[in-house]
Write a structure and sequence with these properties.
Layout lengths: L15 H5 L2 E2 L6 E2 L24 H14 L10 H7 L3 H18 L1 H15 L1 H7 L9 H11 L4 H119 L2
Antiparallel strand pairs: 1-2
Helix pairs in contact: 2-4, 2-7, 3-4, 5-6, 6-7, 7-8
Length: about 280
Amino acid sequence: MPLTEPYDDHLPPEDPVARDGAVGDPDNGDETTADASSSPADGGDGPTTEAEPTLPEPVRQRIVALTAAVLPTLPGDEVPVPLRRVAKFAPNRRARLGAPAIAAQLTADPLFRQRVTARVLVDAGDLGAAVVDGTAPAAADPVEVAALAYLARPRGWRELIDASGAAVRAEADSAVVAELVREAEQRATRAEHDRAVARVEAEKLRDELARVREEMGQLREESRQLARTLRETQARERKATELLATERGRAARASADVDAELRRARARLAEAEAAWP
């Protein structure tokens, strides 16, 4: 929320003659003034309205915080009516909840701002004195300088605010860059960690692959041995089958020979018995 002010309270008071002295002549249509030097076209001292500078958000917050801090120290009759309830808030709630009302009063009530400034400058010490002189120490917080300059409004206060605002923006930009760098470093660290984990996992996988290959080699050797054993067993079985067939043939032939010999013996016996008287 920008703090704006409809006029500059450091300007000289308005000349009532310059304000009301314009007189029109109905006869000749000419317009004259009671004091020619009061005419804006002639560079008179008439009132001007100058828009307030755009304040960075940290500066606006600091102005409200400074005002909220000294608000309870003001005499009751010097506190604007809209802020009397705010002045009774706890310190941590005063700036947070009363910010809109405080900002509005600083904009609309120059006398109130001057009363606040008097107390703020006392608390600010040497920095407040430097700002009143229109200078800003190089080591000073630019937000604090801009806030004091806004309240005190010394000669060149707008330039002080502009310079401090540029410093605040530069600091914010630096913070953004630093955050981006930090995030990039974190990503790089995570990537390096991921690469290290991947290397460990790859090493584990290589070890596992070597073990599997070794097991496969052992299995292949066992398979070859089993195949060889099977072939040998099958060969022995074929040989045994062939021997068994041979022996069966021999046994069959021997049995046939025995049967033939037995039949011949029986025939001879029968012939012998027949020939016996």
